[in-house]
Amino acid sequence: MIISDYIYGEFEIENVLEELILSKPVQRLKGIHQGGASYLVNRRWNVTRYEHSVGVMLLIKLLGGSIEEQIAGLLHDVSHTAFSHVIDFVLENKEEDYHEAIFMDVIRKSEIPIILKKYNYNYEHLLLNTSKWSLLEQPAPELCADRVDYTLRDMYVYGHISLEEIQMYLNDIVVKQGRMCLQRIECAEWFVKTYYQEVLDFFMNPFNIYAYDKLAQTLKLSLEKKIITLTDFLKEDHELIDQIKASNDMQVQSLLKQLHPDVKVKVDQKEYDIHQKNKTRLIDPSLCIHNRLIRASELSEGVRKMNASAKEKFQQGVFVKIL
Where are the alpha helices (DSSP H) in 80-162? Predict the structure, then answer.
């Protein structure tokens, strides 16, 4: 199977990956928006979990990762519920890791173990502990394929960076001790800046904050009224919305109608309707200098300043006024 991606290019992939891509759990991700509720207020914010999952797999392949790690990369998000992290706001889960808690249960109930067994892979060995895949996942503030792909993908699609910049950055990545590292401080500074455009300017955009808050209210009320169940969150975004619309519950419908692209909001710390704090996400890439790993913040005043500013913004949160 030949697969093409607008960021990484064209690759030939193994049969096991082809079958996994065509499986129901992975295909479902085409209907799960990466930005959660964001596309409801801005139709351009439409990157899907499917694009990201395939992208993570291809990035691992590009970096020389094993077929096993590519499989783990492709499947790492199959348990994301409708509207991605909105479920964490519905359940008031500050760690934003509900999809991780249900990951193995979703895998076991799917055809994925059967597909993997056909190719002599044990699904528990590959997927029970994804932290062993050092290209796929690293604790913050390190680089990893998951963190790098969603940053590059969102920021490219939403018009903040170019393919030329992405290629320059990818060319600078080296794998050292099984981890992604950079070689030039300029590339580290560029990625830190781009990452904060993603997790601060996009994730904490007042329109995004509004959308998450309003949709979380809608879904929480729908759960309380038994219009939907937690199991229904394993449907696609549009299916969950259609189910809520079909209820004809006036209170729920009123909330749902407040989610549209013409909403007007602004940041206002004094007179605000919503105050939201997101999970703190900091980045401080390692560089390989003379065969030694060193943090970007140890070499760059710019990185230190960006990190200090980001930490302050995460602690403060966003204050949104609905106009």
Answer: 86-90, 98-101, 103-108, 112-118, 123-127, 145-157
> Looking at the domain 2-205+279-322, which fold is it?
Hypothetical protein af1432 (1.10.3210)
Instruction: Provide the 8-state DSSP code for 130.
Output: G
pLDDT tens digits for range 71-80: 999 999 999 9
Our CA dihedral for 214, 52, 261, 158, rounded to 10 degrees, sits at: 130
How many CA atoms within 13 Å lie on the side-chain side of 154? Answer: 26
pLDDT (0 to 100) of residue 130: 85
DSSP 147: H
Residue ranges per structural domain of the chain: 2-205+279-322
**pLDDT tens column, 220-243:** 999 999 999 999 999 999 999 999
- The widest CA-to-CA distance across the chain, in whole angstroms, is 65
Cα gap 304→310, rounded to integer Å = 10
Residue 174 φ/ψ, nearest 5 degrees: -125, 155
**Which pair of structure tokens corresponds to residue 81?**
């519920």
